[in-house]
Amino acid sequence: MPLLEVNKLSISFVQYVKGSVQQRITVVDELDFAINEGEIVAVVGASGSGKSLLAHAIMGILPKNVETTGSILYGGELLDEKLLRRHRGREIALVPQSISFLDPLMRVGKQLHTRADGEVQDKERDSLFERFQLGKHVARLFPFQLSGGMARKVLVSTAALGRTRLIIADEPTPGMHPDDVAEALGRFKQLAEGGCAVLFITHDIEAALRIADKVAVFYAGEAIELAAADDFKGQGERLRHPYTKALWRALPQNGFEPITGTQPARSSDVQGCLFAARCSSYAEDCKTKRPESREVRGGMVRCLHAT
Amino acid sequence: MPLEGSQLGWRYADGPWLFNDFSIALNPGEVVGLVGPSGSGKTSLGRLLSGYMKPITGKVILSGDELHKGSCHPVQMIFQHPERAVNPRWRLSKTVTEGWSPDEALLEALGIQKHWLQRYPNELSGGELQRCCIARALGPETKFLIADEMTTMLDAITQAQIWHTMLDIVHTRQIGLLVISHDHALVNKICGRTVNFA
């Protein structure tokens, strides 16, 4: 049984358009996702494809004007507000995307310490600060006094061994120096070896491949491919979905060639495949038929024509 | 005329000097990379060059002139965290047009969709916000751009799209561009030369 299981999760924003007229925008549509203990799953994909929303939905911290359907199971139990209250900040840790998630009026050292932390966790955090070359004085600083890279390092220190079972790391590495990225990745690896499930949301595909077992690729609120980390090689011949291939080839070290267009804003506007308008191997049936997820070469893909 | 930082020095309160006696010059149309460890003062340098802060020692010279007068600053900075560079209580349409009114062609080149402009910042992703910040910074009076980890929060395809657009624009308009980044692959790909900041 997976530690965390997301079934048909849909997330929509309810917005006021004019006066009291409301409009509903579905940003994540029937998303399925699972992660096991000791496993590192990287989540990559288009900006705005719902990666952070997935993280926030799991943590129960979506904004108020949001409606969700579907279910999230944690250890087989429905992860509702009651269960979240028990586990959030203890068994389930979030490494947030932005420093604005920190309390601006609280010194960072104090914020990192949770009620569940004992001496072991505090000591471990001290040594982690040392490995990140953060210096003892950093714990006494307020969030606004940290540089972008320092802030990331502080945020990565929120999970602790022996207490955390699931870490959701939302873009933990951008703006970090390569040495610190390696340090942070080593930290996640260490936590995974200790039985922790790591959900690693990132744009840094190269970093993800260094530690992840599997890579989930998101596009327009759907998981369109689940591939082994080894599939990301060469020109991406082993990848299944045309979007994943395009993403791989757009990296500066792999050609830096973008495809044109953007992902559809509302999946409901598109009848067929969400990627059809930008796809190089587009066929007539892509326009009318929304692809179901299916298994191809040991991975999952949502594409009618992937082989 | 180049943008010059001459013998710049900066530190916070009584802390150690982040940098001292540091000089840098950026020519129109030139794309220069700036790399260095986090916390070494790269962003602070950007803020000095773009006039957000006054250097403690040294000076910033633009077109031979030290002080800038007028409404739009010719050196614009694009920040690492777009969600902290916009007013959270303004719809994006107001944010994007606070300095000038970007034309449709630019919005399209940056992949900005019309309906994003009707939303508030917390309803857009980091990448979507960043595109809006880029459009805001590219006003007609902009001569130099400081891009501080501009695309680190974007996916590879969007990153490549935005840099291709950006490089086209800076080339056509002869804008000088300073690229602050940790991504060596990116810096090697797009920058004419690289300054190591340590």
Please give a structural write-up:
The complex is a heterodimer of chains A (307) and B (198). By secondary structure, chain A is of the alpha/beta class. Chain A has eight helices and twelve strands. Chain A has helices at 51-59, 81-87, 108-112, 119-131, 148-156, 178-193, 205-211, 242-249, and strands spanning 4-18, 21-35, 40-45, 66-74, 77-78, 92-95, 166-170, 197-201, 214-219, 222-228, 294-296, 299-301. Chain A has an eight-stranded mixed sheet, with helices on both faces. In chain A, strands 2-1-4-5 form a four-stranded antiparallel sheet, with helices on one face. In chain A, strand 1 and strand 2 form a beta hairpin. The longest helix of chain A has 16 residues, at 178-193. Chain A is globular, with a radius of gyration of 20 Å. The model of chain A has no long low-confidence stretch (mean pLDDT 88). Chain B is globular and about 45 Å long. Chain B has a single domain, classed as P-loop containing nucleotide triphosphate hydrolases (Rossmann fold). In chain B, 28% of the residues lie in helices and 23% in strands. Chain B has six helices and eight strands. With 198 residues, chain B is α/β, with parallel strands linked by helices. Chains A and B meet through strand 1, helix 5, helix 6 and helix 8 of A and helix 4, helix 5 and helix 6 of B.
Uncertain runs of chain A: none
Outline of chain A, from the CA principal axes?
globular
Low-confidence stretches of chain B: none
Helical fraction of chain B equals 25-40%
CATH topology of chain B: Rossmann fold
Question: H/E element string of chain A?
Answer: EEEHEEHEHHHEHEHEEHEE
* Number of separate strands of chain B: 8
Distance between the termini of chain A: 29 Å
Count of individual beta strands of chain A: 12
What is the alpha-carbon Rg of chain B in Å? 16 Å
Count of alpha/pi helices of chain A:
8
Q: Which structural category do the helix and sheet elements of chain A fall into?
A: alpha/beta
How much of the sequence of chain A is in beta strands?
25-35%
Biggest sheet of chain B, in brief? 5 strands, parallel
Query: What is the strand arrangement across the widest sheet of chain A?
Result: 6-7-8-3-9-10-12-11
